[in-house]
Amino acid sequence: MAEFLRNDLKALKPYKVRSVPYKIKLDANESPYDLPEAIRQQLVKELMEGCQFNRYPDSDATALRQAISRYCGVSPDEVMVGAGSDELIRVIISAFVGKGDGVLCPSPSFTMYGIFTHIAGGIPVEVPLDDNFDYDVSAFYKAIEQYKPRVVFICSPNNPTGNVIDKDELMKLIKAFNGVVVVDEAYGEFCGDSIADQIVNYPNALVLKTFSKAFGLAGLRVGYLIGNRKLVEQVYAVKPPYNLNSFSQKAAQLVLENIDLFRSRIASMIHERERLYDKLRGVKGIEVYPSKANFLLIKVPDAEMVYKKLIGEGILVRNFPNDPRLKNYLRITVGTRQDNDAFVETLKRILEG
């Protein structure tokens, strides 16, 4: 069969999610809580009486952007929504990155920054975190000087390490860089801090946020970006029309209308994260890293062996077999108390042999 894929993409490996039967799912940083019953009932009513599925959705997601603007303390025209952060990352790169342009990405971090850059014809440049997986901001300045990138991605809290960049250092970087800085705050609700309301004052910075993690809408794919309105207008030039379906728009809007309930859930997840961290610190033979997200990174003696044995017990976690630096690390999503305890006891049993 003839091959039609671009030559520069032939080495690109598809991002595939392995489908494995499980009892406990702690591999994708999803919320352990499904939508509350009251919101489900409102969505059922919307299905029966509200949404006209023969009509295209509101292309600008007007009502949802207004709700997001109230939540984040910005103006609606400083907000754009998309089908998850993934789509927005791709749209941003499409807007600002041309063939041969450099894009700085922290490493290790979310792999889609580099993948979408490669697809756009750009050149992803990985900037390593330090030995403790903390941000080495000086390394970013050096990379900016060397590679003259068009875009810099910062993930804070960082996935998969869970740490945050110093806010003052971040703002200095934004001021100093003659390009676009994209701050991915997908896990921001779990650290209790955000620069979304400040970023609108800068002409060259965007914040990415999502409903998939803290708000439990991973299955509906709702993300958004915030930035100076003139910069957002530039991104709009490449945004697909009708990119977020009507049902997802309404569900996200209802989440923000019931924000107090979700703030309570977030507080519970943070409390459970700290409890799980303390329990893992008591497990012999592993190292656990503190986190400001809804997951924990742990170092184990033989990650591949532990990973396979956990699967055998019906427990899914995230491994990194293709990343030399993370070869012996696993990322554990903070689940329910019951699931977390079952994971810890199973891990102990595996390590004890």
Largest sheet: 7 strands, mixed
Report helical residue fraction.
25-40%
Task: Specify the CATH class of the largest domain.
Answer: Alpha Beta
CATH topology value of the largest domain: Aspartate Aminotransferase, domain 2
Strand content: 15-25%
Return the string of H and E elements: EHHEHEHEHEHEHEEHHHEEHEEEH
Mean pLDDT: 96
Radius of gyration: 21 Å
Principal-axis shape equals: globular
Head-to-tail CA distance between termini: 49 Å
Domain Aminotransferase class I/classII large: 23-347
Catalytic activity: L-histidinol phosphate + 2-oxoglutarate = 3-(imidazol-4-yl)-2-oxopropyl phosphate + L-glutamate
Pfam families: Aminotran_1_2
Cofactor: pyridoxal 5'-phosphate
